[in-house]
Every structure is written in structure tokens, then in C-alpha cells.
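WARN retry 2 of 3 for item q-0093 after timeout on previous attempt; input resubmitted unchanged.
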Amino acid sequence: MTSLPTVNAGRILAKPIRGRIHIHYDGDDDCVVFIRCNGREFQIELSPFFLCNSPVITSRYHKFVAAVRDRGEMDAEEEGDSDEEEDPEEIQTHFYDWIISVFEPIFSKVAPDVPSSFDPDMIRTGEAKPLLSEYLSPETHRCRLESENDKPIPIHMPDEESQFMEPLCHIDPDLARELQEYVKFFDPSAVEVSFGRPERALDESPTRVLVDFGSSGEKIACFFKGFGAGAFISLERELEAHRRLLKSNVVPEARVVRLLGVVAAEDGRVAGLLLPYVDCRREDGGVLDDIYLRRTPTPLRERWATQVKEAVQQLHEGGVVWGDAKADNILIDKENNAWLIGFRVGSSYTEAWVDEEKGDTTEGDWQGVERIVEYLFSERYDPDSASGSEFDAVEE
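OK item q-0093 returned
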């Protein structure tokens, strides 16, 4: 792998990749956590088997595993804690902080410098323009945590190859060829990462990217939706849904998120999709299901309900089924417009929003819309709770 230019020797910037953890859910307590330090990825293997005569560390580890599984099995008595229930997020945060401190000597030796593409300050000033390829295929190091008599022992295994595949998926060649009739395929090295908050470059998986679709030098902001190495089934289902949408007669003005491009390696393996970047509301991430309805004026809810119905009608008139109608598949942008996302084919309904027998049908879409509208008006508007929110400027 080509080495990257580095800056700030001796500076250690380590963050857990919290959205990525390899753990067995069948009772096996072995797991692998992923730490990004100075642009490198450290895959740290954890198991009670490696913790010898270490009751305190073993208890801490079991508590972390239980928190990841989000089950209430943390036994506070093992470490003499109070009987109060601990927050799983806090448990994970404390464990990651501890792991990073334990492995800091290895981080300092193996990753003493920060590559410019991962340096928040250089990204902020524009001196560094990180590429998606650098995030998808970073320099990786395999490690293991051992302990003896409750003394942690960090182990670096430089001769051991990673046991994890790159986040790339093979797709059906016929599907790929047909998609290329409508959209471009881009190598990850041709896609620039754009962080709204550069400080998150160390621990956040890139989602906002910049792409030149016309070789003009002008780059357009897109949403990058990545897929893991084993997610080929869900990837193909989503690509097939987008293929149908691209071939359809759905009017261009419909507020539905359509496929703009595909990110794929030279061998054809797909890393993810390029979708329109919807500049969402910051207060709640822009997902309708997360919006605090008591702060949302009634006219605004009516606006969203109308827009969702209109978009679904436009889909059906163009011969396309939404397929997974639910509040979690609606984005609200900064202009308070509703956008439909989450197109899939084949068993894509979500229980409680669409009945199983109506999945992937227009009838199921309308059932989902009806329940979305019910959800929108499930709470009364409270002017006092809305004070100071971004809805203050909304006229009733």
C-alpha cells in the first residue's frame, strides 16, 4: 500500500468506529472492536479466554459485551458498583476510552503520524482532500488484548493478516451492465469525502461525498450509502429497485431519492450507492421518525402528509412501488420538504407499518401512508415545547 504524507509527528488521534463491531449473538462472548488511530485501522480481538486471573478486567469486558447487545445483564456487584442500572452507551464509551489508553503505546509506535487525509485541521482549511478509497481500504493492524493478574497486556500482531474483507460486494453482472446504461460507476479513488464536521474524520464513516459527474471539474455533493462485505442481498435488492425507478416514467419533480451513481472497485465489486444529498434539518437528523412532534406545528405536519401522499401517487403513476413505507424512510430537508427514501424489492415491508400480505404492493404503500399520517398527528402541538426550536419561524 502506498504510504500517505503525514503531519504532526507524535500526535495520537484515536477514536472507536462505534458503528462497526464484530460480535457473536449466540452466547459466544468473543468480539472484535475497531479503533481508527491517525488514519490507520486497528482491529482488536477480545475474549475472556485471553484474560488470565483478571476478575476486574473480565467483569469490565462482560459488561461491555452486554451493553453492546443491549441486554440488562450487567452485574454491578462484580466491581462493587451501586445497584443503579447503568446506561449501555456510557458503558461502551468508558470501555473504549480504556481500550484506547491500554493500546496507546502500540498506537504511538505503529501510527506515530497523522496522514493529511485524516487530519481534521488540514481538512478544515482545505489543504487535505480525503478520498473515499482511503477510508474504505485503510492501513490495517491486527491486535489482541491479553491480561495477567488484572494487568492489561496489549498485543500487536504485525504478521497476521486481517480476518475481515473489504466493504465490497459482488453483484449480478447483468444488473451491473443494465445500471450502467443509466448511471456512471466510479472508482473509490475518484470520490472525494466531504465532512461537515472535520473532527469526525477520525471515527465517522463517510456519508457526504463530492463527485464530478461530467468531467467538468465541478463536483456535486452526494450521499454515499455504503454496504458491508456480506450485504450483497440487500445491496442487489436496493439496486434492482433503483433500476426500476430509473426505467420508470416517474416525473422528475417527484421528491424521491433516485440513484445518481455507483461506487465500485476495478474488479466490479460494489462499495455503495451515490444518492442525492438531502440537506436535512439538524435538530433531529432529518428523519421523520425522530422528529419531536410536540414541537411541530399542525400546518407543518399537514404539509408533510400532503407531500408524502403526492410523492407516492407520482411513484404509482410512473409504475413504481415504494415498497417500504414508514416514517423512518422519510427525510425532512431544511426547507421543510418531505423526501421518500428506502426503495427495495422483495419482502421489504416493515411490520406495524405495512401488513405482510400487502408488502411490495400499491395497496401496501397506501396502508403505510395512512399509518404515517396517523403517526404525524399522534401528539398534540405544544407551543411551549417548541419555543427556541427551528419551528419558531413557521407560521400557523
